[in-house]
């Protein structure tokens, strides 16, 4: 089958795929591209109303990440506001806070954080802790200086050691760099397997077994299928790379790996998907292909959570990662793909992952080809679902 015939036959899917692979990561980066979460609703109950407590409240009001509002004179009112989702977090400054501080009674400010949202809760806690630590250090410094200690000596007494930090690979700790890479692979496998590949294989299977063609015709049919899959694979490779590249240009998404490794790794992943799809197609018909797509959409979250991309493999129950690696290839690719793009891994570190995908692909290819060979030679009815 010539290239022009392949493009003409699959032009709808090819165009859809190009738009899908380019626009989907751009849309995700646009939605999740905000580096900092700002204007989180934050409640304050100031029972002390001293100059220090008012300064602390002023520090919270001036922070761009928080939008401060005042909630009565009790902890219960603040808790009710959090339960009603009016605020994300809150702070209670107790009675006589400043006086107790001067008397070294170690008064405590209470922070209430809504833990139902991991992202907003952790940001609210981080903002609040940073503000309070700053005021705590300032008060200690002022207190020591008030004891007739020279400012330089007071600072040395407070800071016995210093530290600095350097965040590697993604200094801004952006949310897109955590999710975009494996979500990209997830969407590619969804489109490639359940919207294109399985319907194609089922259609070719029905034609093959109905016509009972000679081996020469079977070989020609297989060559045509491989040609179509090759064009689709090249399109996926190029369009997905363009999509991530545009994210790098417009949203500074890290993209550090070698282009050659990128294309080889993606090709091996598509080979693994093709291999397991060949075995699945033996057991289903056209309606079964639709059911598979529906099941995949229902269990998609399970596929992501068991891939090692959001929860490490060593924290999973014993034997579970090994079982998942036998069933579906996403676990072989999701985490390595993110590491590759974020860290720019070379051949020495990427080859083991590539070999795992290749081994998976050959095992399932052997199973799929054996099933089709036995059916064609024996004429046994397949178990179409």
Characterize the biggest β-sheet.
Answer: 4 strands, mixed
Report the β-strand fraction as a percent range. 5-15%
Helix content: 55-70%
Number of strands: 4
Taking pLDDT < 50 over at least 5 consecutive residues as the criterion, the unreliable ranges are none
Overall morphology: elongated
Count of alpha and pi helical runs: 14
In words, what does this structure look like?
With 385 residues, the protein is mainly alpha-helical. The chain is built from 14 helices and four strands. The chain has a four-stranded mixed beta sheet, with helices on both faces. The model has no long low-confidence stretch (mean pLDDT 85).
Brief write-up:
With 385 residues, the protein is mainly alpha-helical. It is built from 14 helices and four strands. A four-stranded mixed beta sheet has the order 2-1-3-4, with helices on both faces.
What are the main properties of this structure?
four-stranded mixed beta sheet; mainly alpha; 14 helices; 4 strands; 385 residues; single chain; 68% helix
Furnish the topology, listing elements before pairings:
Blueprint: H1 3-32, E1 40-46, H2 51-62, E2 66-70, H3 75-83, E3 89-93, H4 97-102, E4 110-113, H5 118-146, H6 151-158, H7 176-211, H8 215-251, H9 259-281, H10 286-298, H11 300-305, H12 320-327, H13 330-343, H14 347-378
Parallel strand pairs: 1-2, 1-3
Antiparallel strand pairs: 3-4
